[in-house]
Design a protein that fits this description.
This protein is mainly alpha-helical. The chain contains 8 helices and no strands. The radius of gyration is 18 Å and the shape is globular. The chain starts with a helix and ends with a helix.
């Protein structure tokens, strides 16, 4: 079992068990924010659900790693535990995992709702564009590419990734 899989399994188990334990050893010290989406931080304490109820950040991060490992069904189970079902990150991740399971039509409303809450969420626009391509809807994918460009330019990751997917799609179809 790889280190990432062990981590994901531990996160999933912690989310399911969710035993409440007191957190009195805090001492009021300010905590530095850790970017749990970075691979080098995945094993840091701040990126692991604590015993008890997991926060939506912890749920998102656990689901993110599950999806990165191709464990889409498991990611959806974890995302369903989120308290704020209208968090654009939760919606986008749900759309992503749903789409990767081959249910493109079911994924579209998640992306659309995430964008109705945060129109500048370019990752949701990238994934929505990819979903349109999987349906053969090149025009709608290009609209999303244009929206991404207007929000973060042609150098941002979301633009580069969707532009590559569009180019691949065009190359395959003609």
């Amino acid at each position: 079992m790889t280190t990432v899989r062990k981590f994901v399994a531990a996160l999933f188990a912690a989310l399911l068990v969710a035993l409440p334990i007191s957190a009195e050893a805090d001492f009021g010290a300010p905590k530095k924010k850790v970017d749990c989406t970075k691979p080098e931080n995945k094993n840091k304490a701040a990126c692991k659900p604590s015993a008890g109820e997991a926060s939506d950040d912890e749920i998102f991060n656990a689901a993110y790693w599950m999806a990165r490992e191709g464990q889409y069904t498991e990611a959806l189970r974890v995302l369903a535990l989120a308290a704020n079902k209208d968090d654009p990150r939760i919606l986008n991740a749900t759309g992503f995992a749903t789409r990767k399971l081959g249910r493109v039509e079911a994924a579209l409303p998640y992306y659309q709702k995430a964008l109705s809450i945060d129109p500048n969420y370019v990752l949701a626009r990238e994934y929505l564009g990819e979903a349109y391509l999987s349906k053969g809807d090149l025009d709608s994918a290009r609209v999303q590419l244009s929206e991404i460009e207007s929000r973060c330019g042609v150098g941002c990751t979301a633009y580069v990734n969707l532009a590559r997917h569009i180019s691949d799609f065009v190359g395959q179809s003609g």
